[in-house]
Amino acid sequence: GAGVSQSPRYKVAKRGQDVALRCDPISGHVSLFWYQQALGQGPEFLTYFQNEAQLDKSGLPSDRFFAERPEGSVSTLKIQRTQQEDSAVYLCASSLVPEETQYFGPGTRLLVL
Amino acid sequence: AQRVTQPEKLLSVFKGAPVELKCNYSYSGSPELFWYVQYSRQRLQLLLRHISRESIKGFTADLNKGETSFHLKKPFAQEEDSAMYYCALITGANNLFFGTGTRLTVIP
Fold first, then answer.
1. Which DSSP letter does residue B56 get?
2. H or E segment to which residue A32 belongs
3. CB-based contacts of A61: which residues, under 8 Å, 6+ apart?
């Protein structure tokens, strides 16, 4: 079956631009997670949804980062006024229920110039 | 606060040799630990989790609460084991907390 998909796979933005990253979780998966992976580091938690409810956004690094999942399926991570330090791979993961295995997407590699 | 430490960024072993990737953790709650693997040009995927006590692709990991460790072991390394390995801890909020990873290279 189809796994988690993310688009775009690569994004180059000029500093100050807004970007939107999309995640399509596995169908029927209740939980959705966003992680940020900087070069040479492990993934770091950003935010978590259970269906359409954003239950944890403690990992979002600033108020320039915003995530939504309005219908409990597709999710979008938006970064406003991008900065160079936002350059990273953004990973989305979904799980059937919160405590079950998280399945990761291929990631979106964001480069801010 | 939670912490996952993988002391080796790079590890090289010869094919057929034993391999051990180290992971130490710090967490105030009851830990649930995982190993994730990322092969070249593939997505991050679960290798094993300690509660299932399974052996996947010949790898095993035992949770040692006394030493707060969850080292990943395989008795005979294969070339296809070359990959990036991440140890991770799940917190009460269900999000994964990852170490910085170890790149394993198996030399033919």
1. B
2. strand A31-37
3. A36, A46
C-beta atoms of A91 and B96 within 8 A: no
Task: State the residue for tokens 């999309």.
Answer: A22
- DSSP reduced 3-state for B101: coil
Check residue A102 and report its DSSP letter: P
Q: End-to-end alpha-carbon separation of chain A, Å? A: 37
- What single DSSP character describes residue B66? T
Query: Is the CB of residue A54 less than 8 Å away from at least one CB of chain B?
Result: no
> Following CA atoms A72, A77, A80, A85 in sequence, which dihedral angle do they give, to the nearest 10 degrees?
160
A:73-92 residues touching chain B, CB 8 A cutoff: 91
C-alpha angle A65/A26/A3, rounded to 5°? 100
Contact between A44 and A59 (Cβ < 8 Å): yes
Which tokens hold the place of A48? 């978590």
User: What phi and psi, each to the nearest 5 degrees, are found at residue A85?
Assistant: -70, -5
CA dist., res. A7 & res. A27, Å (int): 16
- pLDDT tens, per residue, chain B with 108 residues: 789 999 999 999 999 999 999 999 998 888 889 999 999 999 999 999 888 777 789 999 989 989 999 999 999 999 999 999 999 998 776 789 999 999 999 999
Which of A24, A51, A102, A108 has the most B C-beta neighbours within 10 Å, making it the best mutation to test the interface with B? A102
A47 φ, ψ (degrees, to nearest 5): -160, 160
Tokens of A3: 């796994």
